[in-house]
Write a structure and sequence with these properties.
The protein is 9% helix and 23% strand. It is mostly beta strands. The strands form two sheets. The chain has a two-stranded antiparallel sheet with strand order 1-2. A two-stranded antiparallel sheet has the order 3-4.
């Protein structure tokens, strides 16, 4: 990618669910009303997220696995003693 100069921004377009990189480029000056701005935070900050009500909750379940990150290959590896193959865990 070319160097980003003042007034330009790096653009990354990601696929829904898989998060595969679809496109990368440089944007500059156009309307950014549909752009979402993200900031990077250390994982240690994200391990406990605030609830809408009072309190906090860990993104990890009691078994150390992030709920909803399981993959179909878990069916293949489960008989081998790997309970959540491909899932995010700590």
């Amino acid at each position: 990618m070319p160097a980003v100069v003042e007034g330009q921004r790096t653009r990354l377009r990601l696929a829904t669910r898989s998060h595969y990189l679809l496109d990368a480029g440089i944007d500059g000056g156009e309307d950014r009303t549909a752009v979402r701005h993200y900031s990077m935070l250390p994982e240690t900050v994200l391990r406990s997220l605030p609830l809408r009500a009072d309190g906090f909750r860990s993104i990890y379940g009691d078994d150390g696995v992030v709920p909803g990150t399981d993959r179909p290959k878990r069916i293949l590896f489960w008989p081998m003693g790997i309970p959540s193959a491909g899932a995010m865990w700590q």
